Amino acid sequence: MSLERINPPGLSPATGFSHAVAAAGSRLVFLAGQTALDADGKVVGTGLVEQFETALSNLLAALTAAGGTSHDLARVTVYATDVADYRAHSHELGRVWHRLAGRDYPAMAVIGAVRLWDEQALVELDGIAVLP
Known about the structure:
The protein is of the alpha+beta class. It has three helices and six strands.
């Protein structure tokens, strides 16, 4: 399996994402949206950064259970109830990503959502991974 992160020089600098990811492998893993739910199904954390950390941890736990690692992530979509708040905390969110997932970024998008499934949830992440 290999992922090639492509960031053409003619595009804006890819900070916290890759413009494109070319994937070659034999197994696709589609990761359902993960929020800051704990094992009892309750949203934990009142702030965006804390909820992002739990949601990313949940996404990575699902990926690990499927036999993958953060390096196998080809695509992640972030749904945020407040995109301005997400942008305001982008450096902190980047530090969380680096600590949990490393320095390689998948192709990513942040989409504003009026509300998520659990009303208290501020952020949700889903993804696609390519495993060997």
